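Hi R.,

Here's the chain you asked about this morning:
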Amino acid sequence: MSEYLLRMTDIHKKFPGVKALDGVSFDVRPGEIHGLVGENGAGKSTLIKILSGAYQPDSGMIEWEGQPVHITGPLHARRLGIATIYQEFNLIPPLTIAENVFIGREPGPSIFLSWPELYRQARAVVDRLGIDLDPRRIVRTLSVAEQQMVEVARALSMKSRLIVMDEPTATLTENEVGQLMAIMRELKAQGLSIIFISHHIEEALQICDRISVLRDGRLVGTRAIGEVTLDEIIRMMVGRSMSELFRRSITYATDEVALRVRNLSRSGNARDPNAIVLDNISFEVRRGEILGIAGLVGAGRTELARAIFGVDRFSSGQIEIDGRPVKIRSPRDAIRYGLGLVPEDRKQQALFLRLAVRSNMSLAALGRLVRFVDFVSARAENELIESYRKALNIHMTGPEQRVANLSGGNQQKIVIARWLALKPKVLIVDEPTRGIDVAAKAEVHQLLDELARQGIAIIMISSELPEILSMSDRIIALRGGRQTGEFRREEATEEKLMHAMALERAPVSVA
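And the predicted structure, written out as tokens:
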């Protein structure tokens, strides 16, 4: 029996203008959790897509259970026992858990489906995971974590030997992460192997047996957990240590209030028309200031951003821009008053993935680029794109490159550039570094700091307390749609913030 379940040797892959993989070798042992980390654009996704059969390598060799294989496509990979769970789930929301788990492989005689057998088999798979889910539940009613469990259950139902998890904890709460890791350990105990891809290096060090680091399409090294530190992994990823990454140490806040929110309230959501979404929230943000908004899942952070920007109507309250009350009934109104919003989900809510960088970046500023009545000046558009490419250090082959082919960090910069082209007074950024690597995070942080230096008022929403603490001049804590604390940078700690985020009402430290 081979020592390795999977061996990928000297894998090369090129795309137009990009060498995605340059001689990468990677292996997984039976019953092992192997971490795969690296910056956005390091080659992780390309390597996994080759393993899953979505891409074909230009050269190199793949061995499965000691035998050379040519993985011709995703179906072939699944038949070998390789299952990939991507960050964007591949589920059908209106169907039940059982139907999603066995879709295309439903049990029953001939062309007929046996519902009792479908639910029995689905229950057996769910029980194997040790989770309490009714196979008859509709998938759209599940939480993100529960939907992820359905994906894992489907992989198990296919008798998979290797499960690839691509950023499985990106949208999970701390408790849900703990539950997922417990399931991963149970799968490992059952003899399954797992490839764990994550930007949360601390999680990889906690759960993995070994960890491999990619940088610029090359394997930097593979280390056993226990023989490597967090700082060493970061140095391998970006070529420098954590202490050299960006840390904000100065404030540019002025006395001039750019945005003031007074007693903002909103009731009703998709599930409960009487639910309290926002309850009398009041704050202000000054020019050059970064105001952090912290809170656990369901605290109302994103709902607050959407209400201010006019995406959702609020029940009562008032918004002031430059000291004057304004009525914001739609995003069009918000833009007219000088507000910009970088949403939480850039792929679903901000980017046109099939379009080029040109269309995505200049879309909001087309009015400034029009010449001769209704014609957009190509020269002015090119100058705008080039100026922000340089200013934001966006790595792209050119304006015609599809946004879908950029790394997560560069996609985020495209969204930010779109709003900067409108020269906003206030920029709201919701989870600005979600799903991007540690080096790209440092670049985004440095960019936000530079925007504050230019006098833009920034509201930064983040679920990562270290990010909130390092970037904010002031921090507001939310819980259940209510304001539970406000702290200056110098007095804020993780303990104080967690106290305010987790309890019904905490002392407000700033008047």
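Residues 108 and 231 are 54 Å apart (CA to CA).

Let me know if you need anything else.
M.
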